[in-house]
Design goal:
Layout lengths: L1 H6 L3 H66 L2 H9 L2 H8 L2 H7 L3 E5 L5 E6 L4 H12 L2 H11 L9 E7 L2 E10 L10 E8 H4 L11 E6 L9 E4 L3 E9 L5 E10 L1 H36 L1 H17 L11 H14 L3 H17 L5 E6 L2 E5 L1 H7 L3 H4 L17 H9 L4 E7 L5 E13 L2 E10 L1 H15 L9 H14 L5 E6 L1 H10 L1 H18 L4 E4 L4 E6 L5 H15 L3 E3 L2 E3 L4 E5 L8 H18 L5 E3 L1 H22 L3 E10 L5 E12 L3 E3 L1 H10 L3 H25 L6 E5 L2 H4 L4 H12 L6 E6 L7 H12 L4 E7 L7 H5 L4 E4 L1 H4 L6 H17 L2 E5 L4 H9 L4 E3 L9 H9 L5
Parallel strand pairs: 20-21, 23-25, 25-26, 26-27, 27-28, 28-29, 29-30
Antiparallel strand pairs: 1-2, 1-5, 3-4, 4-5, 6-9, 7-8, 8-9, 10-11, 10-14, 12-13, 13-14, 15-17, 15-20, 16-17, 18-19, 22-23, 22-30, 23-24
Helix pairs in contact: 2-9, 10-11, 18-19, 19-20, 21-22, 24-26, 24-32
């Protein structure tokens, strides 16, 4: 009996019980869902952490390979190693350098010295005997990748030989191997062999790196057929990731296992168990309290509802009221069913439909036409307003009269056919009473109208929507000031032409530097009007061409076919002529002088970046030459632009790394012809462009504000050279030599020059007279007191000053009296003429006499013949310099010739 009462509670108790159970179910469900996503997030976090730890371990391995490869150059570019492989003096080299301690210092397990043919000349390993060491190195060199690399390098020019480094599997161990070409320390001689370094990674990893790794790592060998990579395994306590390590050829050789504890997952799981217990208790208390409150305050009202239902049901004599299984809701359902049988549902449905149709008919956003057999029989007010008709005029009209003749979608026959196929939406143009076409969206529906088949058309005006779409399109694709295509669109068009029609099109690049000045001086309002003025001229000359603006002062005109190039160039020349003169814009006289470059179709197969680079390079060339005609740029200028870009790109790094080095041209005593010093001349051996002339890179250094850094680099290298050279000469009882270094004007007036010179003197322990700074006559044209003060600051350090290229600049003979100069160098242009020009002879003799009277040393530059030497001796010129005696030579050659021992 109790069980029956439990399952047949009245509405009051059922409602309260269902509410409490539902609340409890929601809380429990939320907990389970939260636990799932929380643990899932922790699982993903652990995956990320183990992957990061695995990547860290791989990065350490890569760093060990790169570190070994970089370090090998110290031995490979060592003259002793070079001479070992060239002259085969094995025992002497081994006695001096090959010890186990050497390998310990370098963290190596193997060193091998390989000939250019790949034969092992000598080796050092941790094997107990030399024979085993040689055998092991020979085995290593038999690795296919190393043999292939040696063979490949032997088929290249020596300057392009390069090192190789990577991982190898040898005798079930993983090794880091590097193979480096051996050259002399200056790197200017052909390589004499190869230096092989090896490190047993199986024994050394992780080793000392364990302290910086965030997880435990283990490296094991792997069969080449094992291809599974980035496998993550999890247990209840740990998580592991297995990654395949590949050798230099890309073959899998080892398995890197990274393992760590699942601390986050274990803590999160335990946390949720405590949370479940706590929330379960709290939820039970809340559900019980909610049940009691709901039953006493809310569910009581259901009792009144149940009593009312019972009274109404008694009036309608509904069966089943006394049934045990029937509750208040069953009785209410039967009551509603009874009431629905006693009322006409048809009247209610008709009323509902009529109200909906009336609301649609009176809509202010949708026009409605009712059409029967092509004839309009009804229209709402919105349709009349949209089509500009009175109702008495439009009724009776044919629907075809409202359709544009060329618009097939508005044709009634086609519309009916498409309606039968299931389509009911159409975009069409309808004619209003004035004949104006209106873009509309039409929804067509077949209905019954007064017992006849009719077509109901719901019409929506699309004009504003299309205008907004067009405006968005214009803002996306066009520059708002000029009205031309914007940068992405015009560059996209050029990219399409490059991809599909290479060498069949061209384009004109136009740059107007005056626009930048207008923006800076007059502001954006005048700048915008200047852009609009230029745009007007463009449209006049290039009607029908696609034009784009790619920056504030750069424009591009696309020439779609090569046969139109001449016409486009003529139009561009007309445009340049118009912009060559000042024009009046907004009441101001403005200069809009521009430069234009046409790309030759023969190079339009190149990438867009390359084409834009060559056009800008050509435009800058035109600006320097002040050209006013369209310049056609082809293969030659393209090559120049690429070369210029390469030099500009590499110049700063070359200066930082001392890749621009001094060559030294000896200076001799005229009477004894003994060398007394050198002049340092900057030289740059570019890795891909070869020897670059100073006439090229020095102006670029000035342009890029790097001339002071370049001067500091040459000065430092020259001081280091003369210091080492004189120390060697002193050991042999020879006299000290000096070195002349040229200074630029920026370097001469730089605030840190004297401090830098003082530091170099201390660092390289130079004595007075070992350094001579050469300045030009133009540097003396500043404020005389400041120039004299700077010269005296330099001379106080024990440095002499030489006036270079005397007679070719702005200085007069009085400069020799006004400034405390020590040396005067006669320019080569005078020396070239002393055999043929009497005036040159007289001038040189007079300069020599005057310099001697003033106590100055005079140097003749550019001496190339014996006849010149004889004349200069007779005229008592102090020192000589020129190709007749020596050309500029590297510091290695200079050291070898003038110190008596090899330079290291």
């Amino acid at each position: 009996m109790n069980n029956i009462r439990l399952f047949n509670l009245n509405l009051r108790y059922k409602t309260a019980l269902y509410f409490a159970l539902g609340l409890l179910g929601m809380i429990i469900s939320f907990l389970f869902i939260s636990r799932y996503f929380f643990l899932y997030s922790l699982d993903e976090l652990e995956n990320m952490e183990i992957s990061r730890a695995n990547h860290q371990a791989q990065a350490v391995i890569e760093m060990m390979v790169k570190q070994q490869q970089d370090s090998s150059y110290d031995w490979a570019y060592w003259d002793e190693t070079y001479q070992l492989l060239k002259y085969r003096e094995i025992e002497a080299y081994r006695e001096r350098n090959l010890y186990i301690e050497s390998m310990d210092t370098l963290a190596l397990d193997m060193m091998g010295f390989i000939t250019l043919k790949g034969e092992t000349l000598d080796a050092l390993t941790r094997e107990p005997s030399q024979e085993k060491s040689l055998a092991f190195v020979s085995e290593v060199m038999s690795q296919p990748s190393l043999e292939q690399h040696v063979s490949s390098m032997n088929h290249r020019l020596d300057v392009y030989r390069e090192s190789a480094a990577g991982l190898f599997k040898i005798n079930q161990s993983i090794w880091v191997l590097s193979l480096t070409p051996v050259r002399n320390s200056e790197g200017d001689k052909d390589s004499s062999g190869w230096l092989l370094w090896g490190r047993d990674l199986t024994q050394r990893f992780p080793g000392d790196f364990q302290s910086i790794l965030s997880a435990n790592n283990q490296l094991t060998t792997l069969d080449p057929d094992f291809l599974t990579d980035d496998l993550i395994e999890k247990s209840s306590d740990t998580i592991s990731k297995h990654s395949v390590i590949k050798d230099i050829a890309g073959n899998p050789i080892a398995l890197l296992k990274t393992q760590t504890e699942r601390a986050h997952y274990e803590k999160g799981n335990a946390l949720f168990l405590y949370l479940f217990a706590t929330v379960g208790i709290v939820a039970s208390i809340i559900a019980s309290g909610t049940y009691l409150i709901f039953r006493n305050r809310v569910a009581t009202r259901f009792n009144h509802f149940a009593d009312g239902i019972q009274q109404i049901a008694s009036q309608y004599q509904i069966e089943g009221l006394k049934s045990v299984s029937s509750d208040e809701l069953d009785v209410a359902a039967k009551l509603v069913q009874k009431l629905s049988e006693n009322n006409s549902m048809t009247a209610l449905q008709l009323k509902d439909s009529l109200e909906k149709f009336t609301a649609l008919y009176e809509s202010t956003s949708l026009g409605m036409l009712i059409v029967i057999e092509r004839q309009i029989v009804d229209a709402n007010q919105r349709a009349l307003d949209l089509l500009s008709y009175d109702k008495d005029i439009i009724l009776g009209k044919q629907l075809d009269d409202l359709c544009a003749s060329e618009d097939e979608e508005c044709h009634v026959d086609i519309m009916f056919k498409q309606l039968q196929s299931g389509r009911n939406l159409f975009e069409a143009q309808m004619l209003n009473s004035h004949g104006t076409q209106i873009d509309c969206l039409i929804e067509a529906t077949l209905i019954q109208h007064h017992g006849q088949n009719a077509l109901m058309l719901l019409i929506q005006d699309q004009r504003e929507k299309k205008q907004q779409a067009q405006l968005i399109q214009d803002l996306t694709d066009y520059d708002p000031i000029s009205g031309f295509c914007n940068r992405p669109v015009i560059l996209g068009a050029l990219s399409e032409l490059i991809a599909h029609r290479p060498n069949q099109f061209s384009f004109i690049y136009l740059s107007s530097n005056g626009l930048k000045q207008i923006s800076e001086v007059y502001g954006h309002v005048i700048f915008d009007e200047a852009i609009q003025y230029i745009s007007m001229l463009f449209r006049q000359e290039f009607e029908g061409y696609q034009i784009g603006r790619i920056s504030e002062s750069e424009f591009i005109i696309v020439i779609p076919s090569s046969d139109k190039c001449q016409f486009a160039m003529d139009s561009a020349n007309k445009l340049l002529n118009q912009l060559a003169h000042k024009v009046e814009v907004a009441g101001l006289q403005l200069s809009l002088k521009s430069y234009a470059v046409m790309v030759d179709p023969e190079i339009t197969h190149q990438t867009l970046d390359e084409l834009l680079l060559v056009t800008r390079y050509s435009s800058q060339t035109m600006q320097r030459e002040n050209g006013n005609k369209v310049q056609i740029t082809g293969k030659a200028l393209s090559t120049q632009a690429q070369t210029s870009m390469t030099i500009h790109r590499d110049l700063e790094l070359a200066i930082e790394n001392d890749n621009i080095v001094p060559y030294f041209q000896p200076i001799l005593n005229t009477q004894t012809e003994e060398i007394i010093g050198f002049e340092a001349l900057a030289r740059w051996q570019h890795p891909s462009l070869g020897m670059i002339s100073p006439a090229v890179f020095i102006p670029m250094a000035e342009q890029n504000q790097l001339i002071v850094e370049l001067g500091e680099s040459i000065l430092k290298q020259s001081c280091q050279f003369i210091s080492q050279l004189n120390k060697s000469r002193q050991a042999y009882g020879l006299k000290n030599l000096n070195v002349h270094v040229n200074l630029s004007a920026q370097h001469f007036y730089h605030s840190s020059l004297t401090t830098s010179l003082e530091l170099m003197f201390d660092q390289y322990q130079l004595s007075s007279g070992q350094l001579v700074l050469e300045i030009t006559e133009s540097m003396l044209m500043g404020i005389e007191e400041e120039v004299i003060h700077r010269i005296n600051e330099i001379k106080q350090l024990g440095i002499q000053l030489a006036l270079d290229d005397f007679g070719t600049g702005y200085a007069s003979f009085s400069s020799l009296c006004s400034f405390p100069i020590d040396i005067v160098k006669l320019d080569k242009s005078y020396i070239d003429q002393i055999e043929t020009n009497d005036r040159a002879k007289t001038l040189v003799r007079n300069i020599a006499n005057m310099a001697q009277e003033l106590g100055l040393t005079i140097v003749a530059e550019g001496v190339e013949t014996m006849s010149q030497v004889r004349k200069l001796k007779v005229w008592n010129i102090d020192e000589l310099q020129g190709f007749y005696f020596y050309k500029p030579i590297s510091k290695l050659d200079a050291f070898t010739q003038f110190s008596g021992q090899p330079y290291i």
